[in-house]
Amino acid sequence: NHDIFELIKKEEERQCQGVELIASENYVSQDVLSAAGSILTNKYAEGYPNKRYYGGCEVVDEIESIAINRLKQLFNVEYANVQPHSGSQANSAVYLACLKPGDKILGFDLSHGGHLTHGSPVNFSGKLYKPYFYGVSKESGLIDYEQMRQVAVSEKPQMIICGASAYSRDWDYSFFRKVADEVGALLLADISHPSGLIAKGLLQDPVMLCDIITSTTHKTLRGPRGGVIMMGKDFKNPLGYKNKKGDLKMMSTILDSAVFPGSQGGPLEHIIAAKAVAFGEATSDNFFQYMWQVKKNASHFTNGLVNLGYDVVSRGTDNHCFLIDLRSKNITGKDAEFALGQVDVTVNKNMVPFDTQSPFVTSGIRIGTPAITTRGLIEKDIESIVGFIDEALYLHKKNKSVKILRDRVNKMMVKFPIFKL
Ligand code: DSN
């Protein structure tokens, strides 16, 4: 196994010396890492605390119960399931619990910033269910709420999904609520990206307005890779659209069963322990300061790029991320991702709304500040990174050596160790 540990070391070096701008990534604390790498990985625990199909679960029962209670406290929700292995698994369990194959779902278009599991034809969600989409307005880059309502009214979907992978503005959950009530749809909020900001009150809160909430735990929430499902206190009749009686307790059982045994086997108790650690960290005031800085850094980032003539989709950001439309700079997302990678600045190419390129090429890149903010970067450092990005794209276009620039990037990042939490 020497080769594997050598490669892990190499990845650690890569993570230390580069500027990580992938909006869905972060650096976890040593405590989260220790829990995720603990001997809990040895334990089978199919079922739920105090209702397991295996012996020897006394300790993991306590751990999972702490994770559930901390998550409930963090988001002020009444129900929490911490077993989904990922955000996609959380969404698949919700669909399994609430929909029949062939039911209609209305989600945010992937090519406008949505997620694969919100009805993309290449994903199970677009194959098992009948997907419809809303998007952003071409002029403003903001969600076209009226268009969403029109599709909802004409198609009467069983479920409406709010949430995105690449949308920089906040969500009007009350508008979605009104439309869901108007057409009798269940309302799901997938807050995988902004969950840390929502937990600290820095964005609109979907808990009281949406029937079910899903999230990942490894993005702004800064935990291990995984997913969760939640329901808020005001949850009344989730299956009302089917005219069945529903209440929170009944729906909790249906959702729990949809995770296990419906779509997963044994829970990853080492990851659940790491989730518990991360939820504990996220309840602290330090985490509020962190999320506040993530937002400030993202906003500062867009201002710096706009000043250099870059086109920021939706004209700015309310959260931790944003898209740059590179068409005005005559470079594709694919080439930009490559050029920035050459100087150890990591981003992902991303479709922009109304893109003219294929998903393999794209016209944009997505940028996020959760990871660099964890490392301690603030506004003045963001200005340096904006400069690095502009210079790297220039050097790429002119086919010039990037070595000096890469050295500057690495020299700066050495000052921000990844294991300081
Ligand atoms: N692929 C993730 C992201 O980068 O946003 C979402 O699943």
- Low-pLDDT segments, ≥5 res: none
Specify the structural class.
Answer: alpha/beta
Bound molecules: D-serine
The SSE string, one letter per element, is HEHEEHEHEHEHEHEHEEHHHEEHEEEHHH
Shape descriptor reads globular
Quantity of strands, as a count: 15
Distance between the termini: 29 Å
Mean pLDDT: 95
Work out the strand percent.
5-15%
Number of helices: 15
Quaternary assembly = single chain
The biggest sheet, with number of strands, parallel, antiparallel or mixed sense and barrel status, is: 7 strands, mixed
Widest sheet: strand order?
A: 4-10-9-8-7-5-6
Helicity range of the residues? 40-55%
Radius of gyration: 22 Å
Task: Describe the fold and architecture.
It is a single chain. With 421 residues, this protein is α/β, with parallel strands linked by helices. It is built from 15 helices and 15 strands. The protein is globular, with a radius of gyration of 22 Å. Strands 4-10-9-8-7-5-6 form a 7-stranded mixed beta sheet, sandwiched between helices. The mean pLDDT is 95. Helix 2 (30-36) runs antiparallel to helix 10 (269-282). The structure holds D-serine (DSN). D-serine (DSN) binds at residues 24, 87, 115, 165.
